[in-house]
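Q&A FORM
Asked by: J.P.
Topic: structure of Dye-decolorizing peroxidase

PROVIDED:
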Amino acid sequence: MRLSLFVVSVAVFIGSSTHVSAAKLGARQSRTTPLLTNFPGQAPLPSLEQHSTQRGANTLPLDNIQGDILVGMKKQKERFVFFHVNDATSFKTALKTYVPDHITSAQTLISDPSEQPLAFVNLAFSNTGLQALGVTDSLGDAQFPNGQFADASNLGDDLSQWVAPFTGTAIHGVFLIGSDQDSFLDQFENDISTAFGASITEVQALSGSARPGDLAGHEHFGFLDGISQPAVTGWETTVFPGQAVVPPGIILTGRDGDPTTRPSWALDGSFMAFRHFQQKVPEFNAYTLANAIPANSAGNLTQQEGAEFLGARMFGRWKSGAPIDLAPTADDPALGADPQRNNNFDFSDTLTDETKCPFAAHIRKTNPRQDLGGPVNTFHAIRSSIPYGPETSDAELASGVTSQDRGLLFVEYQSVIGNGFRFQQINWVNNAGFPFSKPIAPGIDPIIGQSPTRSTGGLDPLDQTKTFSVPLFVIPKGGEYFFMPSISALTSTIAA
Ligand code: HEM
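REPLIED BY: S.T.
REPLY: Here is the structure written out as tokens.
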């Protein structure tokens, strides 16, 4: 069956090259409600007031850091506009005018709503994009120069599933537009078209949206997302129990903790790993039902309870966000909704058995906590993804077969691609032996492990030696590695 693609528009910008002033573009129209949403269960964003009172001078230059890098998964709507630069000179001229009034800083995103624009816009470039603009300094990253398509087989991807325009290096950059209303995304996408005219061609736009009602903040399999993010020193004002605290250079290039020497203009940028993941939701549900776990230490389970339990064991959290390390036999929605408690675990009491959390559960593979013997900063990244596509229909649920495209527009920010996203995917998720030195081989991450042999152990707590052969429910359709510079670097270096 051929799947219909959700909101993939291929268009050529035909706007005039006249640059419309910022005021006309509406960027400064103010809001009455915040642009971002603190979904229940996620650690709330700091406010600018907390910053000035609690952090004083001990803060990052938040007005120069593009906002999406630090805010995480708090968007109702987002559009990724991938583009190709046709004319570097006119692009740079437009960029100089566009940046000051449109590129949105982290500071703006935590300011009073009246100071926030109707939509935020951030901008990042691929290596071919920087080359096209004559920015040829090495950024010192091993994977960035060749792009993600060249790396896809190392990530374990089935290249036959990759779709244009990701199959190559033709994407030069991406505008990220975030808001709470589709009309604002449309308006700001039109503004970009008007401002940059024929200097760029839009090669694809992918739109994501929070799920409706109480499911907002949950990804399409049904699980609350964006709960566990590292607290970045200089940005955080509150560290929540269990939260990792990392120096800013784990996320921001050139800052304390970044192991690489960078050109000076790269200070306060970040590498953005973008992945287009399709999710097979009816197939996931059918699998968990067919393989429902019959019982746990609290007693026998109905088939539906056993399916929910298997899903929770695969993720390491229940759909509410409650960690199975703290709620090992049944969901606890109050725990899932409480950021003071829902991240406060470290696997230290189950280092050698899977009674509470399988070694291969998605959140244990991607953040092994005490499995590494203590806090290790290097491999953290900030996730900033958003679901795309419609809700699963009753017909799809009844048939167990996907007929409408849906999934996750996945974003992770880090200072070193090979330490953040890429390390998590290759060295942990796809590695059947990780976490190492366990009495039972963990197998691969049952959610995102990309490997021909999708075998995972430990999913049944009463029969931990049983292995599950889990079909692939998350299919990489493409992606790219981008660099998101600081706001001053956009005008001083990129547009120079
Ligand atoms: C469609 C694909 C994916 C889905 C549906 C998904 C879903 C989730 C969910 C529901 C959580 C739990 C919420 C939380 O703890 O914050 C989570 C956590 C996480 N995911 Fe994913 N994820 C996907 C892809 C990835 C990929 C590709 C990576 C990296 C290679 C990744 C890395 C992480 C990390 C680092 C965490 C936090 C773990 C922790 O700190 O405890 N995810 N994901």
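FOLLOW-UP: Residues 1-25 have pLDDT under 50 and may be disordered.
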